[in-house]
Amino acid sequence: MIFLDIKEAKKKIASLRKLIERYDRAYFIENKPEITDQEYDLLYKKLKKLEDEFPKLITPDSPTQRVSEKPLEGFKRVTHSIPMLSMDNTYSDAELREFDKRVRKNLGKEKYEYVAEFKIDGVSISLTFKNGKLVQGATRGDGTVGDDISSNIKTIKSIPLKLSSGGTGLPSLLEVRGEVFMAKKWFEKLNKEREKNGEELFANPRNASAGSLKLLDSRITSKRHLDAFMWGVGQYEGVDFKRHEDILEYLRKIGLKTVEHAKKCGDIEEVTKFCGEWQRKREKMDYVTDGMVIKVNSIAQQKKLGRTSKSPRWMIAYKFPAEKAATELLGVEMQVGRTGTVTPVAILKPVHISGTTVSRATLHNFDEIQRLDVRINDIVYVEKSGEIIPKILGVAKEKRKGNEKAIKAPTECPSCNAKLYREPGEVALRCNNVSCAAQIKQRILHFASRNAMGIEGIGVALVEQLVNKGLVKDCADLYYLKSDDLRKLERFADKSAQNIIDAVQNSKEVDLGRLVFALGIKHVGQKAAWVLADKFRSIEELKKQGIDALTSINEVGPVMAESIFNFFNNRKNLEALARLKKAGVKTEMPQRAKKTLLDGKTFVITGALKGYTRQGISEKIRSLGGEVSSSVSKNTDYLIAGDEPGSKLDKARKVGVKIISENEFTKIAGEK
Ligand SMILES: [Zn+2]
Description:
Elements: H1 6-29, H2 37-53, E1 77-79, E2 89-90, H3 93-107, E3 114-120, E4 123-130, E5 133-139, E6 145-147, H4 150-153, E7 173-182, H5 184-196, H6 205-213, H7 218-221, E8 226-237, H8 244-253, E9 263-265, H9 268-281, E10 289-296, H10 299-305, E11 315-319, E12 323-336, E13 341-353, E14 356-362, H11 366-372, E15 375-376, E16 379-384, E17 391-395, E18 405-406, E19 420-422, E20 429-431, H12 437-448, H13 460-468, H14 483-487, H15 494-506, H16 512-518, H17 526-536, H18 539-544, H19 547-551, H20 558-567, H21 571-582, E21 602-606, H22 614-623, E22 627-629, E23 638-641, H23 647-655, E24 658-661, H24 662-668
Parallel strand pairs: 2-11, 21-22, 21-23, 23-24
Antiparallel strand pairs: 1-6, 3-9, 3-10, 4-5, 4-7, 7-8, 10-11, 12-13, 12-16, 13-14, 13-20, 15-18, 16-17, 19-20
Helix pairs in contact: 1-2, 12-13, 16-17
C-alpha cells in the first residue's frame, strides 16, 4: 500500500478518470473496445478506492458517480424551454412525395435538400450540458413538461458526463435531444429473467426502456444496459449551426453518439430509395428502428417552414410497415380469460420479429380460424408492430405436406371442464362457471395489475400456485394471506414473501377508480371505472344503482350498465367486496367540498400549458368538482388556452365560451 498525499491523489485520480472516459468512449460510443473487461474493472476499482480515501476529491462527473446509491422519492418536473414537438407520420412513398410538395410550395424557388436518418423506437430525452458538463436529463413528457430523470440518464454509459472539446471551446449551454433505447439482446435477456421471477413482461424494447428510465432506484436502471443516440438540439448558446448535418457532425465531435446511417439526400426520390433500402435491411440491426426521419437540412429553411401547433413542417417520419415473418404453427392452446372467454392462441416455432422473439400469436376466435383455414403444422405468416399482440395473417397453403391437422373448437372448458357456450350475437366461446380456476387466475392478475391495484410481485407463476393450492379463491383472499402461506410455496424466500405481503397491504389505499377497474366488471375499462368512482364516490353507492341511473351517465351504455348491475347483484361478488372492506381496503373517496368555484363547471383545454401536464390539469379540475371535456360545445363553461391553441379556440369564440389563460385558471383554482 502506497500512501499518497492529497496532491498526488488528485493527479492520480485525474489520470484514471481520463483513461476510464477514453475506454468508455471506445466501448460504448465507437464500438471499438480497447481493453478487456478485467483491465477496465481494475482501473475502475483503483479510482473508487482512491476516491474513498479522499472523498473531498469526488466530483459529480467522475465515472464512479454514474449510479447513485440512494433511491429517489419521486421525479421533479422539468419545463422544456423549447417544446419537444411530435412528428407527423407517413406510411408510403406517395405520402412522402406529398410532404415534399408542401415543402416546395412553402420554400418557393429556393433549392433545398434533406437528411434522412434512422428513427429509433425508443424514448425521447433532452440532455442539458452547461460548459460541457451534463447537468440534467429529462423525459419528453407531454412535450412541454417532462420528468427530471438525471440520476437514471447518468447510468447510461454512452452518454458522457463531460463533453470533449475537440479543439474548440465548449458552448456555455447546449441542450441535446435524442432517444434512449434497449438493444434487442438485452431486452430478451431482461424478459427471460422477468419470466423466471414471475414478473410482468415488457411488450417491446421501447416499453422496457421507458420503464427503466422511470425507476426511482438508479441502481436497477444501471443494470438494464440502456443506450442512447442523439438526433438534434434544443436551446444552445455560444455555438451556431447552419445545417442539420452540421449539428450531427458537431455532436459527434464533442463525444456524443449520434443516430447511425444519416444520409444527405438531394431530393425526395433519393429519400424514398434510401427508406426502401433500410426497410429491407433493418431486421439485421441489433436495435429496433420503426422508420426513418426526414428533415430539411438548412436551419434557415427549417425556420421559414415553421410548425403547426403539433409538429414541425420541415420534418416527417416515414414508418416502416409492420414486420412479417413465416413460421410453423406447432399447436393451439385454449386460453380462458377473466370473463370466461375462450381464446385460441397459436403456439409457434419461435421467430424474430420487430426486435422480439415471437412464439405465440392470437387467433382471436374460431370464426377466424375458419376464415384463415389454418391448420396445425401449417407454415403461417405472422405480423407484429409495436404494442400490438402478434397476429396470424394467413397460411402458406402451397407449402402443405399433407400432415396438417384441422383445429377443432373445444366443447368443454380446458380449465374446469364446464360445457362451453356461444352466446347469440357473439363469436366467442365462453365458460360460464364463476369458480373456474383459469378465470380466477386471470381475475387476480387483472386485480393486481399496474393500472388496477398495482400490487407488485404478483405474477403468473405466483397466482398459478396460489390458486392451485386453494390459498386464493378471489381477490379479497389476497388481503388475508400470511407470509407463512407464501413460504410454503415453491421458490419462495422469506424476504420475497414479506415483500408480497407488504405490497398487498400497501394497495389498500389506492384511489377508488383503480379499485372499480380492478374488480374486473365486464365491459368496464379504465376510463369508465374512473367516471363511476367520481360520480358515486363509494362502492356502497355504486352498488345501489339501477340500470336507468347507470345508463344516464354519458360514458355508460346499456350493455355496460347491465353488466355493472349484474356484477353487484351476484352473491359471490358481494361477499368478496365485504371481505375487501373488512380487510381495510378503501372503498370510498372523500366527498367533494360542498361548493367550489369549479363545481359542475365544464372545461376544455387547448394548446401547450406551462405548469401542468394535460393529465395533471384534468385531475386538478376533477378534484375541485369540475368536468373536463375534449370538445367545445354550448355546454362548455371555460376554455383554457395555452400556447399555440388549436381550432378549439375559434370554436369557443364562435359559441361564446369564456376563454381563460393558464394563469387565470390557477387563480380560479385557488393556487395563486
Ligand atoms: Zn372454466
